[in-house]
Amino acid sequence: MSEGKKTAREIIEGYDGPAVRIMEVCGTHTHEIFRLGIRKLLSKQVELISGPGCPVCVTPVSYIDEAVYLALEKSVTICTFGDLVRVPGSKKSLADARSEGGKIHIVYSPADAEKYAKEHPEEEVVFLSVGFETTTPAGCLSVKKAEEEGSQYCLESRDIMPAAADEVEEAEEEGITNYSMLIANKTMPQAYEALKGSADIFLYPGHVNAITGTALCEHLAEEGISGVVAGFTAKELLTALAVALTHFQKGKPFFVNCYPRVVTEEGSKEAQRLVDTLMEACDSEWRGLGIIPGSGLRLRDEWDMYDARKKYQVPKMEGRANPACRCGDVLQGKCKPSDCKVFGKVCTPQHPVGACMVSGEGACSAYYMYGRE
Fold first, then answer.
1. Which end of the chain has fewer surrounding CB within 10 Å, N or C?
2. pLDDT for 64-108, tens place per residue?
3. Per-residue pLDDT, 257
4. Which of 38, 33, 49, 48 is nearest to 13 (CA)?
5. Dist CA 130 CA 109 (whole Å)
6. What residues contact residue 45 under an 8 Å CB cut-off, 6+ apart?
């Protein structure tokens, strides 16, 4: 059968080219490739390694310490995704803070957190905003909604309380005043640059590229960094891996969008404009990678009333990770989870030592759940 007529599975199983390391940038890709049994199809020349695409996993220890501080020292209600609750901080997790009386409220989106703040005006509410380009727009929307609902409240109050005009005007300027975000959102471009020597091919996360477009990936290919954008179904993952292996044998840097039904060259302009309006780039700490210049996001000055660090004057935290944990090495593709001495022994999903075992997108949780190769 000619190469052009081979199926994606046949290309993957029959690959006999040079050894190649493919980095699953996205934690969901790691889990799906395991769950679908795709790893069992790979020839011995192909090595899949995990990358920094799990937002909970790359969030530094110091961020958890900040959240614990807000819960216990400032008595705010923390609204968070469930994965973050059990991630260890330097001394305590949010689960520990909750056992000591801290109020930790699980939500499924920033909109849920903003709604909770509106419905509980007597509480100070902080949403733990983590994630990449995919989730950042939702956080921005929650801030805009908080501001707009403050304005709506004022329009209604002018008729009801004309004598309180000064208070109404102040509320209009501030919006919902009991809602803010502790921000650790990150962007992927600088991470790709920092990791460009860690793998031969990047398996780019399709949902991120749906927002950002493909221009960056095309530029990286010009710099010698190869990659393919992949979707999340079995067919889409097999196709992306087959395309990657076929192009790799040609010996030249490449980029291919294997998720064209969702990812376009320009991405989501509306989401990009929204984020640019409310946020600006800043340096950011990544677990295992250290501080990567320009890889983080923060609210612009005109929106800083929704910045929890400024609102509550959170002191600078120097987080200390458990020295036995190798999450940082896993996120850089330097080792597999099973290479860590505490993996599956001291560190399990029930008693996690590091973030990669806690998160539903973490590489360690995937290896523990599906196989410990």
1. N
2. 999 999 999 999 999 999 999 999 999 999 999 999 999 999 999
3. 98
4. 38
5. 11
6. 15, 16, 17, 18, 19, 20
